[in-house]
Design a protein that fits this description.
There is one protein chain. With about 300 residues, the protein is of the alpha+beta class. It has helices at about 25-30, 35-40, 125-135, 140-160, 170-180, 180-185, 275-295; strands at about 5, 10-20, 45-50, 60-65, 70-80, 85-90, 100-110, 115-120, 160-165, 200-205, 215-225, 230-235, 240-250, 255-260. It has two domains: about 5-155, Alpha-D-Glucose-1,6-Bisphosphate, Chain A, domain 4; about 160-295, Alpha-D-Glucose-1,6-Bisphosphate, Chain A, domain 4. It is built from seven helices and 14 strands. Strand 3 and strand 4 (about 60-65) form a beta hairpin. Helix 1 packs across helix 2. The radius of gyration is 24 Å and the shape is elongated. The termini are far apart.
């Protein structure tokens, strides 16, 4: 949906866009520098973020690099932070006497599984607002920025989650840990049965953030002993289907494991337990803490 620009007063520039993403995710992408650097600014701009502390009184300093090679220093001071509803900040360059200083309010309005985002910039005078719009293309630049935000959100939702770790254990030991049900229950989930054979179906229960019980339904899709294991991963009673792949690579007497979970965007977007951030947290704990604690301490 294209952005809509509304002129609500002679000193304001208001830009809105309905984003196809839940409010919590939009807030995360707006307030974390690892995300902001990928979408902030008009088409062709890139960013170097020096600091970003999103709290009342917090400072965000960054350099915008234009497509023509010019650099534009920016400084933002947050005046108000109400997660995940509202941001108010003062925007200027590094020059404390910058005449283009203006205040912006960003609101994140929940609309089902989408977010209506509104940016309202208030300038000192109507003349200054008109000058910024004419000389810097502020209106079009804001529209492009929110379009880039939507594109980045879409990319986030469709990219698989990937995590890699190196374990101080041989491949044979790690392979057994991810395929033997008696070993799996000590670091993973307690399965009634499991065989690393194509077509084998298994199920187990997992718990949500508030104690909800989810029945996982899985089926082995690919099994290459000591190298690769893929199985489908879905939830009883819910839409969507995904695929989890474990890949093992021998590195001397150690093992590098790569886990890929794809298809997360097919799960219901209105359930926080199915959010990509939830899976990322779960897999980071399982692959980064539970599995190494098991394989690196047990004898071969």
């Amino acid at each position: 949906m294209p952005a809509v620009i509304n002129k609500t007063s002679d000193r304001e520039l208001v830009i809105t866009r309905l984003l196809n993403a839940p409010r919590e995710l939009v807030w995360e992408v707006w307030t974390k520098p690892e995300h902001v650097k990928h979408w902030w600014g008009p088409d062709g701009f890139t960013n170097t973020i020096h600091e970003m502390e999103v709290k009342p009184g917090g400072v965000w300093r960054f350099m915008m690099h234009g497509p023509n090679g010019m650099n534009f220093p920016n400084k933002i001071v947050f005046n108000e932070v109400v997660k995940p509803e509202r941001l108010v900040y003062t925007h200027s360059s590094e020059d404390e006497n910058d005449p283009t200083l203006f205040q912006t309010t960003v609101t994140f309005e929940k609309q089902g599984n989408k977010t209506n985002l509104t940016m309202t910039a208030v300038f000192a005078t109507a003349e200054e607002r008109d000058r910024v719009v004419k000389e810097y293309g502020a209106a079009e630049g804001g529209t492009q920025t929110l379009r880039r935000l939507q594109e980045y959100l879409l990319k986030m939702n469709t990219e698989p989650f990937i995590i890699e770790r190196v374990y101080n254990a041989p491949v044979v030991k790690v392979w057994k840990a991810i395929t033997d049900k008696d070993e799996m229950k000590q670091w993973y989930f307690d399965l009634a049965a499991f065989k690393p054979e194509v077509g084998f179906e298994f199920r187990f229960y997992g718990e949500g953030h508030k104690g909800e019980k989810y029945l996982h339904l899985c089926k082995v899709m690919e099994a290459v002993p000591g190298k690769k294991l893929t199985y489908s991963w879905r939830y009883d009673g819910y839409e969507g289907n995904s695929f989890v792949t474990f890949e093992l690579f021998g590195e001397g007497d150690k093992t590098r494991l790569k886990l890929t979970h794809e298809g997360l965007e097919t799960f219901p977007a209105n359930n926080p337990d199915f959010a990509k951030e939830s899976f990322a947290g779960g897999w980071t704990h399982i692959i980064g803490i539970s599995l190494p604690a098991f394989v690196e301490t047990r004898p071969v």
